[in-house]
Amino acid sequence: MKAFALFATTADVGIEAWGRDHRQLLRNAVRGLNALLFGEPPPSRGRTEGRRFRYRGDSWENVLVNLLTEALDQTYSRQRRIAALRIRRAAKCSLDVELRLAPWPCRPRAEVKSATYHGLKIIRRPSGLKYVKIVLDV
Length: 138
Fold this sequence. Notes:
By secondary structure, this protein is α+β, with helices and mostly antiparallel strands. The chain has a single domain, classed as 3-Layer(bab) Sandwich (Archease, Possible Chaperone, Chain: A, domain 1), CATH 3.55.10. Helices cover 26% and strands 39% of the residues. It is built from two helices and eight strands; from the N terminus they run E-E-H-E-H-E-E-E-E-E. It has helices at residues 22-38, 60-78, and strands spanning 4-8, 13-19, 49-56, 80-91, 94-103, 114-115, 123-124, 130-137. A hairpin with a 2-residue loop joins strand 4 (80-91) and strand 5. Helix 1 (22-38) runs parallel beside helix 2. The radius of gyration is 14 Å and the shape is globular.
């Protein structure tokens, strides 16, 4: 199964992500963001630090935007990337996750300002997979 893909728009860039459920979809969207920012770095072998992130939204789209916003904040404010997500709970548009943070493997390739709601809709494909296309403001 394809996990994610990057795409370009006129002035921005985006991530397409797929998953069997919301947990996998969120993980793959974060993997796509990391690929955009840092390429495909090898898994972190050194120490990572944990940070708990909890969010309850009015939709899974809202949860996704807030998770990617947290990832961007960690990237640009703390020079950390999300090396892994340990999802404790993902149900009813709420997320409780431990972010495993690692130092940058290199400087970010792009300056991403924010994850946007432009045309954002998580859908279920006929195959049963969840799919999202999210535009990032660069």
